[in-house]
Amino acid sequence: MVVADSVSGDCNPLLGNWSWNETQPLGLQMFSPYLLNAAVAWFPSIYLWILSPFYILYLRHNNKGYIRMSCLFKTKMLLGFILILLCISNIIFTLWKIKGGTPQASEILINPTVWFVTKILVVFLMHLERQKGVQSSGVLFIYWLLCFLSVVATVSATVYKAQTGGFPEGIFRRLLAYFYSALIGAQFVLSFLVDQPPFFSKTRHDSNPCPESGASFPSKATFWWFSRLVWQGYRKPLELDDLWSLQKENSSEEIISQLEREWKKICNEAQQTKDEIEFERSRRTRVESTFPSETEAFLQGHQSSRFPLLKAIWKVFNVTFLLGTLSLIIGDVFRFAVPKVLSFFLEFISDPEAPTWKGYFYAVLLFLSACLQTLFEQRHMYVCMVLELRLRTALMGLVYRKVLVLSNAMRKTAAVGEIINLVSVDVQRLMDAILYLNGLWLPVIWMIICFTFLWQLLGPSALTAIAVFLILLPLNFIVTKKRSHFQEEQMLHKDHRARLTDSILRNMKIIKLHGWEEAFTEKILSIRKGELQALKSSGFLFSVSLVSFHLSTFLVALVMFAVHALTDEKHILDAEKAFVTLTIISILNRAQAFLPFSINTIFQAWISLARLAAFLHLEEVAHREISTSPMGKECISVQDGTFAWSQESSPCLQRINLVVPRGSLFAVIGSVGSGKSSLLSALLGELTKLEGHVNIKGSMAYVPQEAWIQNASVEENVCFGQKLDTPWLDRVLEACALHVDLANLPAGIHTEIGEQGINLSGGQKQRLSLARAVYKKASVYLLDDPLAALDVHVGQHIFDHVIGPGGLLQGMTRILVTHAVHILPWVDHIIVMADGTVAESGSYQELLLRKGYFAEFLGQSEQKEAHYSQEMVKKSSRNISEIGTSAGKTDSFMKNSHEKGSTTLQSQMEGTRMKGQLTEGDRVQYGQVNTTLYLAYLRAVGTPICLSVVFLFLCQQVVSFSRGYWLSLWADDPIVNGTQQHTGLRVGVFGLLGCFQAIGRFGSIAVVLLGGVLASQQLFQKLLNDVTRSPMTFFEQTPIGNLLNRFSKETDAIDTVLPDKFKSFLGFLFGLMEVILVVVITTPLAAVVVLPLMALYIGLQSLYVASSCQLRRLESASRSPIYSHISETFQGNAVIRAFQAQDQFMAQNDSRIDEHQRASFPRLVADRWLATNMELLGNILIFTAAFFAVFSKPHLSPGIVGFSVSMALQVTEILHWVVRSWTDLQNNIVSVERMRDYSRTSKEAPWTLPLDGIGHTWPTMGQIEFRDYSLRYRPELALALRNLTLKIQPQEKVGIVGRTGAGKSSLTISLLRLIEAAEGGIWIDGVDISQVGLHALRSKITIIPQDPILFPGSMRMNLDLLDEHSDDEIWEALEMVQLKTFILGLPGQLLYECSDQGDNLSVGQKQLLCLARALLRKTKILFLDEATAAVDPQNDLQIQAILRDQFADCTVLTIAHRLHTVMDCSRILVMDNGAIVEFGTPAQLLAQRGLFYRLAEESGLL
Questions:
Q1: Rounded to two decimals, what is the model's pTM?
Q2: CA separation (Å) from 553 to 445, 469, 1129, 1292?
């Protein structure tokens, strides 16, 4: 409030009669009387009135719930009303004076009136803030701050006047002014406090809410609300429970829905526009337009696809981004105030007659400008980084939702590894672009302002700098464009590597069974070599780009100084011109450094945006392909249906007509590749409907041919998100032959199943998949050959109790794809598929009477097969009780898990793990980063590279110091007759030193990046070797997301982030040593302050690093579950869609993302907390240097002062970046730690042994002998195989039979040494296999597994991975398995690219390819694990004939699920409970009437 009796400066009773000279006190000398009055009266009010309309509008749209009247609020309101009364009193008093005839100046009445109206507005805003739930007001805090500064100036002037001349007239106003000032001070103090949370706030019920919402405005500005977590992290390692809950505005629920809504809206608009254009085009011409295929779009991207996604992102996040940009612009205003104030300061130093108060005034202005620049810049950084997190959440959610709706055709073109790359690498690059987006235009503005300042200092000489930039500009554009090309090449290699890596990790058991680890490792390393070569080329060009910008900055200074000094002898380069120019050039240098980083980041983001957009534009499953309109008795109706996998592909099903009555059981049969599974996909809506109509009534459940199992408990797999109904669940488990087995599990139904059911057999996975479908109680069941993977008696039990007429699904509509011809008499209707069409349909008897395709299909089977089929039907009722009995005898579920390679299920009894838990979460390290990590990284870089880096950085910094010192000598040259001497020499040496510095900078950056590539290559190869050398136990316990995280995100960090952080740290560290040296030499007093400040810096850094590193670890660990869930969803999206469980899985994904963001958000706040507080401390050094310069002005020359202050300005930024880059380095070195995690895990026996005593021809006979062999999966577990002693003669054909869990497949594990023997041993041709290298052993044994697996790559690569056979041999093998015609019809034939898992082939075709692969290997020992389960009976008989013919001279071991397949074996090995029960010829065993006799009887063979 302004109180004055007159507007005259001479008789103003407030300010008194005083002159503008240095004898006045500092507070009075800063302002003229009129300026002080205007500032006090108007500035705070103008600020509030301008901002209040926008603030009120903001409050109306951001209601957080009202706050009850607290004591704090009542106190503020009371003080507000008292201030209003004081203003009214002042107005009344003035009016009374005027009425009394005393003349009053107009401002005496106007100023209190303005304050009165403003205080009313303040009271209104306080009330409105309480109603809207604002606990601490930033708008009012700034208002009270401005008022407080104003009254401080007013009161200081009044006190001075009172001391010099007593109280002036108008004692009432003086007392009123003091009382008013005290109330303003009280309001300012109260504005630091925070009110209670809103009444309906969620934080009231949150156990650990984020403290930001309840922090005061000053605390928010300086991020001190984060200090409690920093201190907590310093005292003990942080854990996930210590982190705050995620705020609603940062949650997945809030963000993903916004972007998804905008994305769909824009896509619909684009599709509508496209349809209109196509319609108009079709009216004019019949020529079809050509568009790039979806696959090409995904791999390369196209320009037009970026813009819809970019538009959607902009619409969602534009307001937040623009607010951050506004903070940055305001911060830049204060950035450029610093050199201007420095110019005034040096002018003051140069003027011996200048009053002292000006120097202190300029020192304060330097300090305030630097502080405000810090606060606004850090607010900008905070807003941008929060926006980065929100963008990551939105894009991850959008990609995941796309995975859920991805069509089958497009799923075959993409791979899990590529999608993981999208959500890790590409999304991260888009996040980085947010911070650097303003770097495309803002540095240009900086340059313009810098040139303007330089013009003021050096005149027309500043124009020469523009020529320097124009000369270097084309070079930088060429470098940037070329670098973009290398980055695209690197991303293609990265995608290829990710696809192959994912496939290898998922199918490691198959790879180990065949001994293919080295072959696949070489393939990955070959791809990796191309990736690193592109990275190396890109890094080299980046070094050129960075140095060219730094060189341009030096050339600007050189050319300007040279032109200015040499064009006119009278042009003097004094201290003001030299050091202010250097300060401006440092800003120009920052712009020069910011611009290449920005361009580089934006180019990378542009590429990633195209990749993301291309993926999001991939074809989706059509939502309206299936009609659900009411029908009569028909449950499913297909009329003239023609279907294809995609719009571009040829039809796979043609002229399908199908009517399925409600409650009926239909069977679909046909040869391999006839279209059986495609028919079910068409009914699910997974295929594109080209013609016809499909109508399905009721809900559906789907059992795929290859069972999809979640990494969850048995209960969660079966219930699949539905409400738990325990009685129904028990019935389902018993009907699916799982009930008794579950009783023996460590945690029963709560036992965890590994990823992809890795600890289950194929039959168990299929039964679990069937149980999930049965539990759903759907109207329609689509069953894709669920009986193929089951033992015969188990399959019959499933048919009787689940699928068949008397099963749980009776009365439901069932369509069953099957090769089991023995169940066909029991179905209501049979559909025979051939070449994608319905060849025949009808009942069993009708089709037999027609003697058509169906009769021919059955006729291919031998007479004993027909007899077997009929007998199975008759004896089915006897199987149920025996299954239960036999299951009770053994721990079947557990033992069969061991058979299939599980080594972990029973080990969950360990005390350190939860009962029933299988997989381990991603390990989180605790404590400080170990020094050994740096040593490990430096060893990977190499000693010569490390020494070269230190030497080059030291050399370029010495040259930099010499250049600066040389310039200071130039500025101090004496002036003789208005000129400086030796100007030419000064210019020449200055330029030469700059060139040397540029060379040193290029060398240091290039060598660091080269060392980073070498380290990345070595660490990646070590990680790959550690993983591939691990036993199967490791892969069962480790979620695939943990591994993919290390092969994608952590690898990318080591590739690109770590070298950049090392480069930054070394550059700033050597720069800091240079600056400290200069400060200590020139201004010792300022150097005294540097040491305490460095101590404070170290303290802050210690607090920060302890928390930041742990937050980085938690963030990395929480990322793995996201990748695992995406991978799991990608594999099972057809099942998820069939069960209509998309919402459930989206909620799970959102929950995982939110957990990840809980760790990411505190980490970014920690960065801002460190940066803000360190810069504020550094600003004290600026003030100290300037203050001491003023204090010691008589003893210092202008050059020394300029040099000291300019260096002090650099110390602040350099100290900050030293600590920041060191911290970033510590945060990212964690990636090395995580990549070395698996170096300490147990490893397999050596792959090769130098002296194993075998030749290349071993084994020559194929004799196998077990001598007292026992096998256990862990030392603490019981034996899985017990005292096996048997001898298998060369060329003998042995069938291995037994009930589920008997130990049949454990023989496979033992023979191929997936697990080492507990006792005894195995000899092959007299050689102990424990003395043979694993690859030497496994390469001599061929196994055809039950689950056929193909890898991404050519058909030829899948058949002959080691490239050991000619094309003729491969074609011969394909002809044997009846696939030659099929392969000849494929594009590229043997070069045809198989998709991941071979998804572009049927299961039967993949099984035949695996058989062809075995024919090519043709070792002396062949192991068959029900290799023909997925093929039709006709092909089954032909394959059996091929095996008998081609492997006649080989020892063949056949694990039988269907007993008839081993009846022609030489001998049969019968196992039970891990021991040999019977061993002899089929005739002998049948005569004994033992276990084999009972099994044969159950199978209908007797």
A1: 0.72
A2: 16, 9, 52, 82
